[in-house]
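The step that takes the researchers longest sounds almost clerical: writing a folded protein down as plain text. The outcome of that step, for a single protein, is printed below.
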Amino acid sequence: MRTIDEYYPANGRVILHVDMNAFYCSVHEAEEPNKYRGKPTAVAGSVELRKGIIVTCSYAARRLGISTGMLVNQALKKCPNLIVIPPDFTAYRKYSNAFMKIAYEYTPCMEATSIDECYLDITGSKQFGTPQEIAAIIQERIYMELSLPCSVGIAPNKLLAKMASDMNKPNGLTVLRIRDVPKILWDKPCDQLFGIGGRTADKLKKLNIHTIGQLANSEEMLLTQTFGVLGVWMKQAANGLDQSPVLENREQSKSIGHTTTLPSDIYLKEDVHRVLLNLSDQVARRLRRKQMVAGAIQITIRTPDMKTITRTHTLSAPTENTEDIYAKACQLYNEHWSWDKSVRLLGVTLQQLMPKEDSAIQLDLFNYEQHPKKESLTKAMDLLRNKYGENAVLTAGMLGDDPSVLIKNHKIRGTSLQMDFRDKENENLS
């Protein structure tokens, strides 16, 4: 009979990845089981057929062909009895905190990477049992106490733990060791390796690297010539190697972003800039509310055929200013998108966040005397809008020179846009 010490490597780690299954839908099912349990459900940013997009769906819905990213009207054609639910972020945060509190009882070394998943380093947790026993206890407690299903991956590093948790959903409990990688992963296409997306996989195909096994056995020099330091990481990952630690003390937010699906596709410069201004204003206000500044700005563009691109600009100095964020967002759009192409979704995300007190905000050489006045005005506007709502103070740029023309031609109103921006408010915890 094996002793418990034999389950824990002498010079290695034991990592769990806890991944909640169909989290948003599962929360609604836990809150109202009589209404949703076992039924095909989907959460959408908007239940309005034109612009509604499926954010997540239950496994009952997935079995009927529903998938994330599908338009609501398409989903309802495929599954007329699909129950479409508007998001409830208050409930999601409550259940997120609850399941992470359970996980935290088994190790203080926990890293939350999003609202519905976390890593646990249980190398020093053998008093609770073997890794499989600890994983099973956490999984059972989350279900018994919260009525939420989850999958757990067990591995010697974060990469393999993440991939293991994805292998047997829902309610899976999977062990993935480094010695298992050739047998289990090497025949899979490269884009199934966590961290490699479709574009990178396409570049690998041009190098005649199609599978994870081929990537694992490829020449490192060939990869670095094409991908730089990322090439080294990809080869190591394909061999199941990952040294990244589980970070206990992570910043509360790594990014702050807003996206909005537009009531109708737009392409005119003044319409795009007006949306970007509203988005920039929203994220800047949230940034200031957190007493933080941003070192990089990213825009998201989604086309009518659902293709999504993102482009990022690193700032020369951190900022909290709406004008700076808006200017860079417009610059990114101008540089990377054509004005004759329509868009259906736009987003602005602030990255590389840091506390304002720890940063050096760059002042304009010619207008530095105006900075205190501008900062006071911004604070006053924020206070008014926090107290009286989003529309208490609007700039002329948010409304346009002639709002009636915009309404007539594009069916976009200043007030409706303000509400739409809350469809996809996100705080990335990764």
